[in-house]
Here is the input.
Amino acid sequence: MKRQITMALTGMALSFQVLAASPASRQAVEELLVVARVQEIETQIEQQMNELFAGALAQTQLAPQDEAIAAKYWARLNAVLRQQLSWEALKPQYVAVYTAVFTDQDVRQLIRLYRSPLGQRLLAATPRLINASGEIISAKMAIVLPKVEAIVQEMAAELERSTE
Here is the structure.
């Protein structure tokens, strides 16, 4: 009898562990994506890409007829990007990644976080944090790229000498 009780309790404990670690449900992940404003972030990224192109185009000082040509190709490129990177195209992949990475309990906790005042502040600050991070990386890359190029040139020269 004692053995049966021990086995039953062990079985219950294991089943609770399995339940606690169960993968996140699609519905819970979709709710998290809404609460975390992931679609809004995707829209902001698209807007930033458009602004970058407009800025790059303005700096090239193209002749008016060339600007029209560049704008025509940007429109085509933008259509391809919108199709491939639209929320409708990305959402199933986001859901798949989130369900693979997080348990249902994790997702519920993240939803609670993003609904909290702190979570709302985090969401509001995220674009600034991403921009600041990008600026930091860009500044570091400006320093690193010449060093990387020098190393690559050295390697290419050594490879060329070794094949002579």
